[in-house]
Design goal:
Length: 906
Amino acid sequence: MFGKRKRDSEFEDEIQTHQRLLTERYIRQGMTPDDAVWAARRQFGNLTLLQEKRRDMQIFPSLESFWRNVRYGARQLRRNPLFATIAVLSLALGIGANTAVFTLLDQLVLRLLPVEAPERLVMIWPTGPILGSNEGTRAVSYPMYQDFQRHAEAFEFVSCRYFQQVAIDVGGAAELGNAELVSGNYFRALRIGPSVGRVFSSMADDRIYKGHPVVVLSDRFWIDRFGGDPNIVGKKILVNNYPMEVVGVAAPGFTGIDPSQSPHIWAPIQMKPLMTPGSDNLGNRRSQWVQVFARLKPGYTVESARASLQPLFHQILEGEAREPRVSKMPEYYRSRFLKRTLLVETAATGYSDVRRQYSTALIVLMGMAGLILLIACSNVASLLIARAAARQREIAVRLAIGAARRTLIGQLLVESTLVSVAGAALGIGLSVVAARALLSMLPNNGTLLMLRAEPDLRILLFSTVVALATGILFGLAPALQGTKLDILTTLKDAVGSIAGGGQSAKLPKALVAIQVALSFVLLIGAGLFARTLVNLKTSDTGIQNIENLITFKVDPAKSGYSVARICSFYTDAIREIRAIPGVRAAAYTMVPLLHGNERGSDIFVEGHQVKEGEDMHAYINGISPGYWQTMGIPLLAGRDFDGRDRFEPSGPRKLPTVAIVNRKFAEHFFGAGSPIDRHLGLGFDSKGVRRPLDVQIVGMVENSLYDGPRSGVRRQVFFTYLQANIPLPATFYVRTTMDSTAMSPVLRRAIARIDRSLPLYEMKTLDKQLDETLSTSRLIASLSVVFGALATVLAALGLYGVMAFTVAGRTKEIGIRIALGAQRGPVLWLVVREVLVLLGAGLAVGAPCVYLSSRYVSSQLFGVTPTDVWTCAGAIVVLGLVAAISGFVPARRASTIDPLTALRYE
C-alpha cells in the first residue's frame, strides 16, 4: 500500500539490467545492436504486464482496487464541493442526533454493569399491598431480605442496598454526598474487589446492630477528595457527624448498581439508624425500603428462579399474616395481602429510578432521531441520483471502453460511503454538543453524576455502523440506476432527454414523498409534545407567583442535631429569614412540593362508613405556621396552626392532634358539610388495630398541587411541624420581592449565622423546581420541536431539489409548450401540480403512520389526544406552505424559460 513508487522504480531498474545483459549476449552472437535490443525485449516480455503481475503477487488486488476507488471518490467530491457540503451536513445532522440520543440511551438503558457475568444478576421485589410503609421503588423489608438470603435455593448470593444522601465531613468541611448502605455480601455477590484495603464481608460487617462504623470509598471519590492517598486505610471521616473508619477503596470503574448515580461511599446496612437519623426500621416487616439483588446459581434461569421462590414467598406471607398488625385487619385487606406475588427480573444493566423516568422518553426520541436520519438519507440519495444523471455521459464512455458495471457500482458506493463517513465524523462532534444540551435539560441534584456526553468506544462503533449502513443502503439504488443506461443513446449526447425521462425521476419523487410522510409524523409529534408541555406548565398549581418563591433544603439531623435542637434551629432560621429586607413571608414543609415525592397514609374519618375496597389513602405533609400566607393558598374555613398546637420536644405525645385538610378531601368525605371540628384517625397501629379518631380538623384550604401537574389535585391532610417529635428534614419556602439570584447568597448568609457548618442544598425558585419535575416532558417537547423543524427543512430541500431536477429535465418540453402559446399561469400550474401530488402522496403515507404510532406516545401526553385534529391540521398547513415555497422557485423558473434557448438546449 505504501512505498509503491520506490519498489516500481527498483523493479524497472532490475528489468533494464536483465534486458541489457540479453542485448549484450545477442550482440556477441552476431546480431546488430538494434536487432539485439528488440530481441531482448521480445525475450523478456511486456514490462507493464510484469509490473502488474508483481503487484498482484505482493498485495491484495481488492485492497488496491478499493484504495484507488477511495482516492478517485475523494477527488470527485473535491470537484463538487456544493454537493459534498450539502450531503455531509445532512448526514451529520441525522447521525449526530441519533448518536446524541443513543449516548444517553446506552448509558441509562442498554449498558451492562461492569461486573463479572452481569447476565446472572436478578432483582427481586413483591407486588402490593404491603399493609405498611414503603420507601422507594421495588423495595422489600429487611427481614424479608434475610429470609431470601437464608432460604432461597436458586441463588449463590442474595444482597441488598439502600441509597441515601448523607453529610460527609472531610477536613472540617461538611458536604452533601451519596452513600449506599449495603449488606456485607454486596461486593462478593457482584464479584468486585478492592484497589486498596478491603471491601465488606458478611462475617466482618454484617453482624452487629450499629456496630460497624466503617466505609469503603469509591475510586473516584478517593482520587478527588484524598488525592489517591495509598495510606487512606485506617483514617476516619465524619458521616452525619459520626466517625467512620475507611477500610478500603472499591475497584476502579465500579460505580455501583445504578448507572445514573455514583456513591461516594459504601457503608454497612447495619449502620442505617446512624445514616438515616429518625428512621430505624431494620427489624420492621411492615416497612419496605431495601432493594434486593441476587446472583443465579448455574442451571437456573430467571423463570425457574421465580418459580422456585413463590412457595418460599407464600410461607413468608402466611407467617406475617399471623402477626397482630395483619391478623386484626379486615378480611378484605388480609386476603389481598396473601395474594401478593413475587417478581424476578434480570438486573444485568442494574436498576435506576432515572432510567425508569426517562427510558420511555429516550426511546421515543431515538425513534424520532431515526426518522430524521431516514429523511437525511433520502435527501442524500436524491442528490446521488441527480449527480449520477449528470455523469451519465462519463459513465457511458467508461462502459463503452470496457469498464465492468460492477466496478462502476463499487466506485459509486465508495463515494457515497465517503460522504457517510465524513457525515459521521462531523456528526460525532455535533453529538457531543447535543448530548450536553440533553443533560442540561435533566435535573441535576446530585443523581446524574455518571452520565457523560462524550462518546466512548461503543458509541463510536454505533456511529461507524450507522455511517457504513447509510452509505451502502442509500448509495446502492443511485449506483444501480446510474449505471443502467443505453450506451449508444447516451453517447449521442441525449443526456437532457434521458435525465428528464419518467423512469429516472420516479425514484427521486418516491424518496421525496417518503420525506414528506416522515416530516408529517415528526411535525405532529412536535405539536403534541409542545402542547403537552404548555398544558403542564400552565396548569393551575394553586400556589401564587411560583417564580417569586425561593426554596432550599436543610437536614440538621445529618449533622447530629437532636430533636429539640432541630426545632430550635427551624425557629431561629424562620426568624432570621423573615428579618431580611425584601422577604414578604417564609415557611417550611416536611415534603417538598412539586418534587415528585410522596408521603401518605390511610385516613379514617369521623362519620364515614368505609366500603369494601374503598381507597382511603390521603397524602400528608407537615407544615410550619405561616405556610398558607407564604404559598398564597386561601384558607377557606377554620384557622391556621399556631402556638396552641405546639408539642414539647421531650413530651410523650408522638402523633399529631390537629390537622388542616384541602377542599378535595373535605368534599370527598363530608360533601357539602363543614369539616371543621370533625375528627380523623391515622391508619393502623403496630398491632394492626385502627387508630382512634383523635385528630381534630381545625381548618380547610383551597386545593393545590402536591407532587406535580400529571398527578392532579390529591386528597391532602396537613399536620403542624410544631408537633413533630422525630428528627425531620425541612424544605424552606421564601416569598421575596427581590431577584432570586441576588437573594440566594443572602439566604445562605442568614443560615450561616446560625450554623456555618450546616449544608444547604437544592436552592432554586419553585418555578425552576416545576421545570425539573416536568423535565421529561420538557426534554421530549424541546427535541421533538427541533426534530420537526429539522425534518421540515430537509423535506423542503428534498422537494426543491427534485422539482429543480424535474424542471431541468423537461426544459425542452416546456420550451415547446411556451413556443406554441402556453401562458405563464398554466406552466406554473404544471409544476405546482406535481408538488401537490407529492405532498398528497406523502400525507397519505404519513397518516397511517401517525395513527399506528399514537399508542406509543399516548403515555407521554397531557391534555391532548394522540389524534388531535388541530395538531394534524397545523402540520398539514406547515407542510403545505413549505411545499408551496419549495416548488415555487422551480415553477417560476419554468414559466420564464426562453423558447429559443430551450429548443437549443440539446
